[in-house]
């Protein structure tokens, strides 16, 4: 018998993962926002591996993890598989990360094999324009 624990709408929203794909020329950017864990690993794996292995127009794959709040250890294996798949096909893979996700990747020594670019600010959302603030700086 499986136990089920009720989750509030706020808790449900924190457990979601949004994946967006953007192509510019021969570069494909896959941006993730939210948590990448056991519950969300399947769509993450599919998006990354499909682009790394079957997209004939991609020469360079950028994985943007700057808006990821949690990356499970098991999900880091997907990054390594995608990197190796890109290498076999003559493609490059670059990972943009910051905060705890960057620290986790560095602690695992994956930065020795993967090309990881530290980011100091989150990646801008392609869907929203920056809101103008009411502050006037003179």
From TrEMBL:
Q: Which domain of life is it from?
A: Bacteria
CDD domains recorded: STAS_anti-anti-sigma_factors
> Where does the record place the region Disordered?
119-138
Q: Per the database record, which ranges form the STAS domain?
A: 17-95
This chain belongs to the protein called STAS domain-containing protein
Where are the membrane-spanning stretches?
A: none
InterPro entries from the UniProt entry: STAS_dom (IPR002645), STAS_dom_sf (IPR036513)
């Amino acid at each position: 018998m499986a136990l089920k624990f009720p989750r509030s709408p706020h808790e449900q929203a924190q457990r979601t993962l949004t994946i967006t794909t953007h192509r510019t020329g021969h570069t494909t950017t896959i941006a993730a926002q939210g948590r990448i864990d056991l519950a969300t690993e399947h769509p993450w794996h599919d998006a990354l591996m499909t682009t790394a292995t079957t997209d004939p127009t991609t020469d360079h794959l950028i994985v943007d993890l700057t808006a990821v709040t949690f990356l499970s250890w098991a999900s880091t294996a997907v990054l390594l598989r995608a990197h190796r798949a890109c290498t076999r096909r003559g493609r490059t893979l670059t990972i943009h990360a910051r905060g705890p996700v960057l620290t986790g990747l560095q602690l695992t020594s994956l930065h020795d094999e993967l090309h990881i670019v530290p980011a100091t600010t989150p990646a801008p959302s392609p869907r929203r324009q920056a809101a103008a603030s009411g502050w006037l700086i003179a």
